[in-house]
Amino acid sequence: MKKVILAGGGTGGHLFPALAIAEGVKKKYPDSQVYFMGTKRGLEAKILPARGYKLFYLSVRGLKRGFNLSIFKAIFFLMKSMLEAVKILRQLKPEIVIGTGGYVSAPAVLAAGLMRIPTFIQEQNSFPGIATRILSLFAKKVFLAYDESKKYFRVKKKLKVTGNPIRPEIFKADKTSAMKKFDLEQNKKTVLILGGSQGASAINQAVLQDLNTNEKELEFQILWQSGEKDYQKIKENLKDKKNSVQVFNFIEDMSSAYAACDLVVSRAGAISLSEITGCGKPAILIPYPYATAGHQKYNAQVLEKNGAAIRIEEKELRQIKLLSKAKELLKDEQKLKQMSDNSKKLGKPEALNEILDEIENFLKTKAT
Fold it and tell me: Which of 45, 89, 140, 206 lies 20 to 30 A from 53 at CA?
């Protein structure tokens, strides 16, 4: 692969798989050139230039739900972005274009398809959005995270279940070193609480409430990524608590965080779940109820159905004591191990290599 364009962003769920693929391409093909298409409003505008990637901007905008006047504005910017994408593609002349979702991938993949540049799509969620289903008609191959996604696509021969591409480093941490890193006791069970990089106030509030009402010692320790918004409030609340809680606004070294824990409490974003299953961790999942098209609910259902996680709806947090549920699970060694084994079966740590191999095989076939 000599020249590759990746299009995907807006949120980390679409950007980080693209970034993992970009890093994989550069490692496997050191002479390759990797470029991105994105928007000035998405997360990509902050992250990609800082990592040394050239980002070409498109004017495309997201479509609000329901039929309203914004649909005409969205169509206008889609058409404008397709012209911008055509100009970029003519300038760079890439071998392939890979879309990883988000509204930015639509004009890039459509323009490349119309110009007969081979396109590939990587879908992170178990329930693919309508844009992905339409774009799949132009793609040479569609890489899926879950078997359950297949039923939503017309052309089955294009589909390949690989899992989500994750940075290989995420699986490499050592537990003993990880416990030291976060100042955790080596012989005590650990619960990792996550809500994505921005935190999740509903989860934070439920954990804080449990800590405030539970006077007894928990019998386990907590490693907690709170997000910036709730961090100071949580730190203040924990001052006089006797339970062992290590709280961070953001955990940079997620590899060590997963290595240190025995159970994960998390939202159900696609990439988080790929990391959790890749590391073979049992989980309590609280899907974000306002995720586009209910993606997180569908993602969580896959793990629940396969015995790798327990799913709790956010509205149920008022009745369910989250930490008591965690304690109950940690005490049941047999169930915890079974959940861990089931999680590992769902995990696809080789997803990135599979995707790169499939693309390479296509290019070789095309060349001959």
Answer: 140
- Cα–Cα distances in angstroms (integers) from residue 308 to residues 83, 173, 273, 329, in the given order: 45, 21, 10, 12
Equal fold, 3-166+349-367 vs 169-346: yes
With 70 as the cut, is the pLDDT of residue 198 above it?
no
- Averaged pLDDT for residues 8-33: 93
**Per-residue pLDDT tens over the stretch 230-256:** 999 999 988 777 778 999 999 989 999
The CATH topology of domain 169-346 is: Rossmann fold (3.40.50)
Residue 178 dihedral angles phi and psi, to the nearest 5°: -65, -40
Reply yes or no on whether the pLDDT at 48 is more than 80.
Answer: yes
Helix axes 70-92, 105-114, angle to 10 degrees: 50
CA torsion through residues 333, 225, 178, 163, sign: positive
CATH topology assigned to domain 3-166+349-367 = Rossmann fold (3.40.50)
